[in-house]
Amino acid sequence: MFGGRGENRVSFWRTFWANAVMAPRTSLGFMRIDFVAGMIFIIPLTQMVFFALTAQLANDSASEIQFVVIGNAVATVTYASVFSVCQTTDSEKQQGTMEHLLVTPSNRLALYFGRGLIPILISLATVTMGLVYAVVLFGVTIPPGSVWMLAVSVVLTAFAMVGFGLLLGGVALYLRTSIILGNIFLFVGLLLSGVNFPLSSLPASLQWIGYALPLTWGLASVRAAIAADSFSPSPCSGPRSRCAPPSPTPPPSCYGTSSSIVRCPRAPSPGSEPARGEPAANVFVGEAAGTR
Asked: Residue ranges of the domains in the chain?
């Protein structure tokens, strides 16, 4: 009995490390060194600069631009964890090894974890490089006491996203190609995970879809760590002007606007007083703003 447990344990780790070492040469063979270098160093920079310039053209404040920068730094985890992992299914189909993989007696959990090890490491490197760009180029401040919380958040996000990519890879098994599925969730994450704007600004139906994505929670955790704040289940952790409820409408001014006419009391002329019990005369202020 004890020997069987030991054999199972050896089989688990042997399967895990065999897939971790061989995956870059087989199912992840498309991830060449130049491809990985571009994913780590080039993609975060270009994506962050693009969306930061877009926010700047929209006249966003500095805090809102940093909100966008942090979101896109973390969102780059999707390329290695979702898009690349999904393509492993296509690689198995093209090489004709899918049938052998399905009938193998090896531990399936070790097999999937082993194939996800390299994407996890690449995801960690990509997000780390993105956060370095955020600090150096965009002035994002990370408190020293929050570095460990940020590291834990990034690691958990990478694990969750690779697991999500493996899930999509299983769904792609029944599709002709997995590239379309990976692209769909790549851009859905940008739209519904609070990357460029808080989730609370979306309609309620889209918010529920966003809550189902692991990137939403990973990004909320990273933002909370950078802000040295406790993690909140609500991913609305952007600038106060974006997440706070709108302020009540101020009372109308006696100077009027172009779309309203306001009735205001006329100031008494010098040396004259209204009769006792008689209200002051009124004037209409309208059309042209800034006229009394």
From this structure: 2-243, 248-292
